[in-house]
Structures are given as structure tokens and as C-alpha cells.
């Protein structure tokens, strides 16, 4: 940071750079859901077993969630533009490989490769945004667009997956990334400018990589297996125990490593830690609800995949509105928590409306109002969370800080999908067992039980959202960003502190 008027001139191509960054972010986020729609078709085409089909999703989330911290630190060390371009090229190549898969193993491997390169691309994109936009007003607009992509990408993926699967072929759900990545690659080469500082003497923390990435892989894998095996299965408990041991060892080592993978001062900051937790709670609550609404509209309302995707568009529009038209305009005037807390509570209210789903429900009365409120709340939340979590961080730590935000989002989404799905399934089983008296009514009771399971899980999501709002209210105490630019002396002190952290 530097005092007003003494910093470098803004990059005249920064808004075109934002387009490139937002496009790459959209590609990474929508890829988490676009393949879900294509999965039944891919399973039939490649002869996948029911037990193995989950690896199409799990392979991606394991590599993505487990390697984000490494990807963020690599971006800090070798340059964000360079890792951004490497991530784009690798993601496109892995997507093409997956689209051409001749068997399950090839598809699983391609999805894992997608996750690896997404773990390089996502933190590079956010850290480029962080270092490109310093002016509070411009930063608000930029993060508003980025937050809209992060929040709405999943819903866009559902629509794109439905259209591509229904009118082309499931393979195009992977091939579509190639032209998107090509456009982003050409744009990145033309308009992005790297802000990597000179040689700091920092080196990659190999023990930190093994402990941190190993712990995250064990955690995400344990959560994904809990969905099919149950939370008390020996393998699941073993993975969770391993995750605790590895992550505890990682935390201990980061306080002693000469060049830590995740510098302790990044997570010790109260506002930043509050944003990481809030992001995790928000995605735990929302990702499972995306899944339930998809099932509800297709299985209960009888919608096609394309119609289901179209039904999510109002929610996407609400997320974009909340992020770009409300949060982006207000962030430099009000403290972040005055946007985050109302956003979480508004999303919780939207979920409360969705607990009214029924077998005889209709989209306009039972689904749309809750979707609009939840989307607006997420738009209000995501933008200030991203902006606050990455504000004031030393340039050398921008990549790993961005990676930590993405890790919160990815791990939260994995936990939310598995946890809420387990709650829904358990509640459905209990409902059917308690109400089925006449075998002739099995179909009706089963349908009622399925919807009952959804509503029970959504009530849990409401509680998680409220808890996230409480965390944000208590921990995120930063003032409006226009008050956060320190005088030159404080900036120099911060830079000196950062240098001492790395032994320079």
C-alpha cells in the first residue's frame, strides 16, 4: 500500500483485465456443477458403476480443494500472470481430455487434472484482481463482478449443462471449457499485467505443502465418502482423524517455517479470519440447497434439465444484482459487516421460505420467492467477503490469501453437499418408515418423504446461515474501505514487517 497520490498509476487496461479474470473465475466455478447434469449420460456412455460414478465429481473436488494453498503460494513465488496462463492452458487441455474419454478411468484422471489446474488458476485470478484494483470505488465494482461470478457460476453451470446435454452431447460439458479458456488466454496475454514483487528470498515450504495439502485432501475425501458410506464408517472416521493430525501439524509448522506456505499473520487477522469462516458457512448452506432444488424441480415438478437450468436464472440475476448494484455501491461507504450480516440473514430468510416445499408445490409460489431472497443475500455477502479478506494484505501474500478464501469456499461446499444430503436422506427414511401403512400408498408416501427430507435439511441450512451471520457480526469489525488506506509511514512499517516475516 502507498499513500494517496504516491502509488503507481492505475493500469489503463485494468477493466479489460477484469473481464478476463471474471471469465476464468466463471469457468472454474461452473465446472463444479455443469458436469452434474451430464453425469447420468456419461455413466451410460462409459459403463460406469453406481459406486464409481461419484469419482467424476470427487476427483475434481479433491484435487481442487486439496491443492489450492499450494497453487496460491506458487502464484506468489513465480508470478500471478504466469500461473494464470498456465492454469488456463492446463484446464483447457484437461477438459479436452475428459471430453474425449473412452472409459471411466480416463474421465476420472481428466477431472483430477482439471482440479489441479483450477487450484492454480483460481487463486491467481483473485490475487490479480486484488493487486490490480487499489482505489476503493473501483475495487468495489471489480469485486462486485467477481462476487457475482463466484455466486452465480454454479447456477449458470446447471443451465449450461442442461442445454449441452440435451441438445448436443454430455462431452460438450467438458469441451465447452476449451473455447472459453482460449478467449481468456488471448485476453490475459494482451491486457493482464503482473504485480509480482522482486526476489524476496522466499522458497516453497515443502513440509507445509505435504501437511497442509495432505490434510485438506483427507478432509475433502472424508466428507465425500461420508455421503455414500455414512459419517460413522471406519474409513470416514479414519480420514477425518488423519485430516485433524495433518492440519494440526501444518498449523504448528507454519509458526516455525522460515518461508511458511500460509504465513500465520494472514489468518491471525480478525477480519480476515471472520471472512474465511463466513465464506465456509455460506457455501455449506447454499451448495446443498442447489442440489435439493435441482432434485425437487426434476423429480417432483417434472422439469427437464434445460427447464431446471432456466428456473435458476432468476436466482443468478438476484446474486448479480446484490453483488454489483448493492454491495459494490455501498462497500466504500459502510463497514463490510453491515453488508455481510444482512446478506446472510436475508439468505437465511429465503431458505426459510423454501422449507415450505411440498409435493403439490409450484415454482412461482413455493420456489421462486425463496430463491430470489437467497440469491440477493448471497450477492450481498460474497462481494464484501472477497474484498475484505484480500484487503490490506502484503503483495507477496496476495496469492496464498486468495487461495485461503477459495479453500473456504471449496471445503464449505463439499461439507455442505455431503452433510445436508445425509440429513435429507436420513429424514426421508425415517418419514417413510413412520407413515407407510398401506403398500398401495408407497409412491405418495415416498414422494412426501423425499420432500420432507429436503425441508429438514434446508432448516439446518437456515441455522448454518444464521451462525455465519453471527460470526461475521462478531469478527468482521473493519471500517469502510475508504478509511483503510494507511499513511505512508504505516505502509512502510507494514512492508518492513512483511520483510521480517520472510527473513529479508
TrEMBL record:
It comes from Streptomyces luteolus. Its main location: membrane. The lineage of its organism: Bacteria, Bacillati, Actinomycetota, Actinomycetes, Kitasatosporales. This is MFS transporter. CDD domains: MFS_MMR_MDR_like (cd17321). Residues 17-481 form the Major facilitator superfamily (MFS) profile domain. Keywords: Antibiotic resistance, Cell membrane, Membrane, Transmembrane, Transmembrane helix, Transport. It is a multi-pass membrane protein. Gene3D superfamilies: MFS general substrate transporter like domains, Multidrug resistance protein D.
Amino acid at each position: 500500500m502507498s499513500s494517496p497520490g504516491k502509488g503507481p498509476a492505475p493500469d489503463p487496461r485494468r477493466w479489460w483485465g477484469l473481464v478476463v479474470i471474471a471469465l476464468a473465475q466463471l469457468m472454474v466455478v461452473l465446472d463444479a456443477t455443469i458436469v452434474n447434469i451430464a453425469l447420468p449420460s456419461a455413466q451410460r456412455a462409459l459403463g460406469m458403476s453406481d459406486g464409481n460414478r461419484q469419482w467424476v465429481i470427487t476427483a475434481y473436488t479433491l484435487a481442487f480443494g486439496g491443492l489450492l494453498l499450494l497453487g496460491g503460494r506458487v502464484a506468489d513465488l513465480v508470478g500471478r500472470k504466469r500461473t494464470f496462463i498456465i492454469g488456463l492452458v492446463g484446464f483447457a487441455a484437461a477438459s479436452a481430455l475428459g471430453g474425449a474419454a473412452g472409459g471411466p478411468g480416463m474421465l476420472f484422471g481428466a477431472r483430477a487434472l482439471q482440479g489441479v489446474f483450477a487450484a492454480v488458476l483460481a487463486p491467481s485470478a483473485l490475487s490479480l484482481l486484488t493487486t490490480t484494483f487499489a482505489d476503493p470505488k473501483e475495487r468495489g465494482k471489480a469485486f462486485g463482478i467477481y462476487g457475482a461470478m463466484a455466486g452465480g457460476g454454479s447456477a449458470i453451470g446447471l443451465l449450461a449443462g442442461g442445454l449441452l446435454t440435451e441438445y448436443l452431447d454430455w462431452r460438450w460439458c467438458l469441451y465447452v471449457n476449451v473455447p472459453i479458456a482460449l478467449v481468456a488466454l488471448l485476453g490475459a496475454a494482451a491486457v493482464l499485467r503482473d504485480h509480482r514483487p522482486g526476489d524476496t528470498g522466499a522458497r516453497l515450504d515443502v513440509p507445509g505443502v505435504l501437511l497442509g495439502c495432505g490434510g485438506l485432501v483427507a478432509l475433502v475425501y472424508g466428507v465425500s465418502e461420508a455421503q455414500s458410506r455414512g459419517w460413522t464408517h471406519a474409513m470416514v472416521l479414519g480420514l477425518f482423524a488423519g485430516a485433524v493430525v495433518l492440519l494440526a501439524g501444518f498449523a504448528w509448522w507454519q509458526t516455525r517455517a522460515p518461508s511458511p506456505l500460509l504465513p500465520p499473520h494472514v489468518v491471525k487477522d480478525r477480519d480476515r479470519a471472520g471472512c474465511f469462516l463466513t465464506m465456509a458457512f455460506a457455501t455449506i448452506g447454499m451448495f446443498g440447497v442447489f442440489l435439493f432444488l435441482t432434485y425437487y424441480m426434476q423429480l417432483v415438478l417434472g422439469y427437464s434439465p434445460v427447464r431446471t437450468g432456466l428456473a435458476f436464472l432468476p436466482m443468478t440475476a438476484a446474486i448479480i444484482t446484490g453483488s454489483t448494484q448493492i454491495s459494490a455501491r455501498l462497500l466504500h461507504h459502510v463497514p463490510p459487516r453491515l453488508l455481510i450480516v444482512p446478506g446472510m440473514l436475508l439468505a437465511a430468510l429465503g431458505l426459510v421460505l423454501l422449507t415450505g416445499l411440498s409435493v403439490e408445490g409450484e415454482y412461482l409460489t413455493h420456489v421462486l420467492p425463496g430463491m430470489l431472497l437467497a440469491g440477493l443475500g448471497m450477492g450481498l455477502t460474497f462481494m464484501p467477503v472477497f474484498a475484505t479478506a484480500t484487503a490490506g494484505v502484503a503483495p507477496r501474500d496476495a496469492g496464498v490469501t486468495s487461495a485461503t478464501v477459495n479453500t473456504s469456499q471449496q471445503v464449505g461446499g463439499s461439507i455442505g453437499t455431503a452433510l445436508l444430503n445425509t440429513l435429507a436422506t436420513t429424514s426421508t427414511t425415517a418419514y417413510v418408515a413412520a407413515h407407510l401403512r398401506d403398500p398401495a400408498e408407497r409412491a405418495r408416501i415416498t414422494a412426501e418423504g423425499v420432500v420432507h427430507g429436503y425441508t429438514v435439511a434446508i432448516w439446518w441450512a437456515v441455522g448454518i446461515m444464521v451462525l455465519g451471520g453471527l460470526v461475521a457480526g462478531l469478527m468482521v469489525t473493519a471500517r469502510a474501505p475508504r478509511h483503510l488506506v494507511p499513511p505512508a509511514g504505516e505502509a512502510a512499517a507494514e512492508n518492513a514487517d512483511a520483510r521480517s516475516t520472510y527473513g529479508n
